[in-house]
Every structure is written in structure tokens, then in C-alpha cells.
Amino acid sequence: MTLKKGARAKLREYFLHNIGRVMSSDELRQAAGGITEWARRVRELRTEEGYQIQTHNDRSDLKPGQYLLEDPKPRPAFERAISKETRAFVLDRNGFTCQMCGAVAGEPHPYDETRKTRLHMGHIVDKSQGGTDDPSNLRALCSICNEGASNLTLERPSAQKLLIQVRRARGSDQIEVLKWLINKYPKQAKELLGD
Predict the structure, then answer these.
(1) Mean pLDDT (whole number) for 7-31
(2) Run of H or E residues at 182
(3) DSSP sequence for 69-113
(4) Global pTM?
(5) Do 53 and 75 touch, CB atoms closer than 8 A?
(6) Residue 99 neighbours by CB under 8 Å, 6+ apart
(7) Are strands 119-123 and 66-69 parallel, antiparallel or unpaired?
(8) Run of H or E residues at 68
């Protein structure tokens, strides 16, 4: 008896067979077997397995909906460390309801009635920002909100707010921001530096 590959395994294999090639959302959805939560599986490859999958948020030459894996070797990543007991406690505390849109687990989702509401654990302060898996830092989020659909309405920080944060940061962190910006905007960086 052969086991059926999950969507994450299919995507991992697809990325590793297409290193250095820009791939589209539609292509990755098909590679994942056509599942609706393919983008979440891509995020898991980044956050849990450490694959440096680039998007338009990382590189200015990529358009929204484009993905690129340049290096097959993953970097150290976060483990999934939320116990079943903690998950059950948070879901019960939150009334088995998404804390962003109010969708109830198991019912048709109010933003997409073709999907049943599935709840996930969301971090209030992200692990990459020092957040923990403690119940006080967790909340129930439906798959749609957790995928970022509801985050589109959040206010984006202005240049002034970003500069205030960068100025307050340590010098080593400011240099990391500079490196990230140069990597994302290499053409513009050369123009500004006059090279």
C-alpha cells in the first residue's frame, strides 16, 4: 500500500524541481493538487521548514502571485510547538469562533460559502517578532483570515512611521533593513548610489 502525498510534500518537491524558475499561483495550486489552502502550505515550507521562497514582498522584480526558490538548502526554521491541550484551551476560550471575522468552526464561511470554516491557531505577536506559543499570545483564526484575506483592510504603515521604527532600532538591525532593501530593490539601489 502506497501513501498519498500531502499538498506540502507535493509543493516541496515541485519547488525543488524548479529551483531558480519563477512560478505562478495557478501553477502552484495545481502542483498542490488543486487544494484551496495551497498558499498556507507554501508559508509552512517557509516558516516551518526554512525554505527561502521569495515573493514580491522580498524582491521587486517579482509580481504579486509569483514565487521563486533560489536555494534548495533550507535555513533553520521555527518548529510547530502548540500542544493539543493548548489548542483545545484557546479554541474553547475563543468560543470556536474566528477572532477576526467571527466565522464559526464547521459552518459555511461568511466570505466564501463554498468553504467550511476551519480554525487555526494564530499568533498575536508573531514568532519571528519574539512571540511565544503561550495561550495568552494565541487566538483562533479561520483559514481565510489566517491566509491574509482579512488583513488587506489593515492600515499599511506610512514611510514616516517606518522611518521612526528604523531610527529607534539598533544599528545592527538597521543594517539588516538596509541589506533587505538593497536585495529587494537592486536596480534602484544602484541608481541611488550612482554605480
Answers:
(1) 94
(2) helix 171-184
(3) E--SSPPP-PPP---HHHHHHHHHHTTTB-TTT-PBTTSBPSS-T
(4) 0.53
(5) no
(6) 122, 139, 140, 141
(7) unpaired
(8) strand 66-69
Q: Cell digits for 42?
A: 507554501
State the DSSP string of 103-144: PBTTSBPSS-TTSB--EEEEESS-GGGT--SSGGGEEEEEHH
Of the candidate ranges 45-49, 69-73, 172-176, the one whose mean pLDDT is the lowest: 45-49
CB atoms inside a 10 Å sphere around CB 65: 14
- Please check whether residue 110 is in contact with residue 102, taking contact to mean a CB–CB distance below 8 angstroms: yes
* Model pLDDT, residue 69: 95
Q: Rounded distance, CA 13 to CA 34, Å?
A: 15
CB 140 within 8 A of CB 89: no
The three three-digit cell numbers of residue 104, written as one number: 464559526
The torsion of the CA quartet 16, 11, 64, 193, rounded to 10 degrees, works out to: -30
Is pLDDT of 149 > 80?
Answer: no
Cα–Cα distance measured from residue 29 to residue 36, given in angstroms and rounded to the nearest whole number: 8
| Residue 138 or residue 146, greater confidence | 138
d(CA 94, CA 121): 11
Q: What is the pLDDT of residue 156?
A: 62
Distance CA 31, CA 12 (A): 10
The 3-state DSSP class for residue 67 equals: strand
